[in-house]
Amino acid sequence: MTNCDPRIEAFMESVENGEIRTSKEVKALVAHIRYCFENEDIYVDQEQLTDYLGLAKYFPYDQIFPWQQFVIGLHDCTYWRDSGTPRWTDLFCLIGRGAGKDGTIALESIALISPYNGIREYDVDICANNEEQAIRPVKDIVAALEQPQFLKKLRRFFYWTTEKVIGLDTKSTILGRTNNPGGKDGLRSGLVVFNEIHQYEDYKNINVFTTGLGKKQHPRRSYYTTQGDVREGPLDDLLDTSEEILFGGDPDNGLLPFICRLDSKDEVHDEANWEKANPSLPYLPTLMAETRKEYREWVKHPERLTSFMTKRMNLPDGSNEVKVCDYEKIKATNKPVPELQGRICTCGIDYSMLTDMVSVNLHFREGDFRYDLNHSWMCLKSKDIPRLKCPWKEWAKRGLIDLVDDVEIHPSIITDYIAMQMEFYCIKMIAIDDFRYALLAQYLRAIGFDAKIYKNLKMVRPSDIMKVAPVIDSCFANDYFFWGDNPTLRWAVNNTKMIRYGRKVGKEDDADIGNFVYGKMEAKSRKTDPFMAVVASMVIEDAIPYAQATNTPDLGVYTY
């Protein structure tokens, strides 16, 4: 590839021949990059890359790692030949803790405000959720510039304070910015860096910081992060988009997805695989020793070191509790729900308080496959709303939840919704938690559901959940759930833990016979109501015929 660069190609060859162990995503990226260089009119500005990497001598780095040369070369120095614009304007770098993320941000930032870039006022804004993450790369740059042996020379090209660095030739500024969108509409960034994007719950701040792009030549975005515990946010969206590019054949649209992680949790027990998550590890013996130490502690007491898998290996571990299932299995529920009008179903209702969140689930079964239509309401007076770590406003815009601006979610709102669904589906039975029934009893009776009179309402007890939990586990394991694109429901599953059930709930030394019920990971900020509505509806799924006619004739409505 004469239009490439030997440093980039050396890394690619090391991946292709197995000299270094990499994730399946990095292997797919290398194949994609090779295809692009062989089939597109693009080139690497080798002189610019040499100059950019040469700035590393001012930093206390022992060496520039091959992966850093690869991503900086492609993101910052590869161009379309006809227009001279960057080929990969956006970099998504998911990499394990300790790999040198902040150092890479620092090197990329100083390179792009240097004379080697040459674009005037090419500002670099480093954005993060807290001040420390935002200014850490800036501090690294300042520390490098203030080394006595380089001070006199570098003052000819840069001016700096403790909070910002300015390139004197191009009048470009590097500035760390906290995750507060107020007053950011006037930005004129050349590069926007998002540090630790796993902490972002929605796109509010991302949108504000990126609207200033395009005012300068060669606009770029960089997303640097480890894995985290926030689900259904921008990080998961970036991962999904990357998978579609790398494995689904979607055009990359200028996104360079460099995803370093283990391919499976089982790989963690062979330390030779650890470089899949952290390609810097073979060059950092001190970090390797620390990682070994953490691994040994994690094996003995995983509940004490839950961040080891999440941060070191970039596979979400999430909690020291027993999770319902892996997040990959939760994502597998995102399959289209077929046309179900006229079909028989059960209905589950779940809530903790009507002043918080309420969920209703319509549950259909066809052989082994389960189809669920899930809807929720959120009370805007809930004291838990500021604690929620999810894009609930976006879910409301999509119609997945309704926002109730009242002192509570009135029971009639729930029963009116169920009555409306009865016009389209045949709701055979309703299930609701035994302790939640009293508030809704008269309203459910008004639409034809009662435990004693009509015998079509089930009050769910823990023993009922124990019986259905293995069925739910099997449905996740075999990908039997079809939920459509419902991030609210996926989020709720990820918030749910399994609790051992004996004479004393949760006591492992009491009656550990493999029975489980469900509980919340955290009481205030991680709601489980949408999933528990699914659980309730599955407690009574035997009321659904195992096989149903797919085309039910419309008999009309008769009044007697």
| Total E-strand runs | 20
Mind telling me the C-alpha Rg? Answer: 27 Å
Describe the oligomeric state of these chains in a short phrase: single chain
Uncertain runs: 505-513
Q: Could you report the average pLDDT, rounded to the nearest whole number?
A: 88
What share of the residues does DSSP label as strand, in percent?
A: 15-25%
Amino- and carboxy-terminal Cα gap:
80 Å
Question: What class, by secondary structure content?
Answer: alpha/beta
| Shape designation | elongated
DSSP helix fraction: 25-40%
Question: Could you describe the 3D structure shown?
Answer:
By secondary structure, this protein is an alpha/beta fold. Helix content is about 35%, strand content about 20%. It is built from 18 helices and 20 strands. The protein has helices at about 5-15, 25-40, 45-55, 65-75, 100-110, 130-145, 150-155, 205-210, 235-245, 285-300, 305-310, 325-330, 390-395, 410-420, 435-445, 460-475, 485-495, 530-540, and strands at about 40-45, 80, 90-95, 125-130, 160, 165, 170-180, 190-195, 220-225, 255-260, 320-325, 345-350, 355-365, 370-380, 400-405, 425-435, 455-460, 480, 495-500, 515-520. The strands form four sheets. The chain has an eight-stranded mixed sheet, sandwiched between helices. Strands 12, 13, 14, 15, 16, 17 and 18 form a seven-stranded mixed sheet that branches. β5 and β6 (about 165) form a beta hairpin. α1 (about 5-15) packs across α4 and α5 packs across α6. The longest helix has 16 residues, at about 25-40. The protein starts with 5 loop residues before the first helix and ends in a 21-residue tail after the last helix. Residues about 505-515 have low confidence and may be disordered.
